[in-house]
Design goal:
It is a single chain. The chain is an all-beta fold. Helices cover about 0% and strands about 50% of the residues. Strands 2, 4, 5, 6, 9, 10 and 11 form a seven-stranded mixed β-sheet that branches. The protein has a four-stranded antiparallel β-sheet with strand order 1-3-8-7, with no helix packed on it. It is globular.
Length: about 110
């Protein structure tokens, strides 16, 4: 089983980015999918998840700014990030909790 993230980069405060995570080697549609992030010098933290039946959940600090979605046909989960703040700077990871697999991460830098 494998996860591959993409879509990170440098963005100005207030800007937007969309991250993608493609899964392979497992039945994507049956698993809850998670996004975590690790800010510089800090531990990894939960960002958002979307359950196999589609219901989302977010950490408080991104609620209303981030949107998680999934396309089971493409075996991909997305994280649309709007109104980005410098505190959102981190390496973002895709995760399947039930299989304990992680992607390699994609760096998001929010800076003027």
């Amino acid at each position: 089983a494998q996860l591959v993230e993409s879509g990170g980069g440098l963005v100005q405060p207030g800007g937007s980015l969309t991250l993608s995570c493609s899964g392979s080697g497992f039945t994507f549609s049956t698993y809850d999918m998670y996004w975590y992030r690790q800010p510089p010098g800090k531990g990894r933290e939960f960002v958002a998840c979307i359950y196999s039946f589609g219901s989302p959940r977010y950490r408080d600090s991104v609620e209303g700014r981030f949107t998680i979605s999934r396309d089971n046909g493409k075996e991909t989960v997305y994280l649309q990030m709007d109104s980005l703040k410098p505190d959102d700077t981190a390496v973002y990871y895709c995760h399947v909790f039930a299989l304990n697999i992680w992607g390699n991460g994609t760096l998001v830098t929010v800076s003027a």
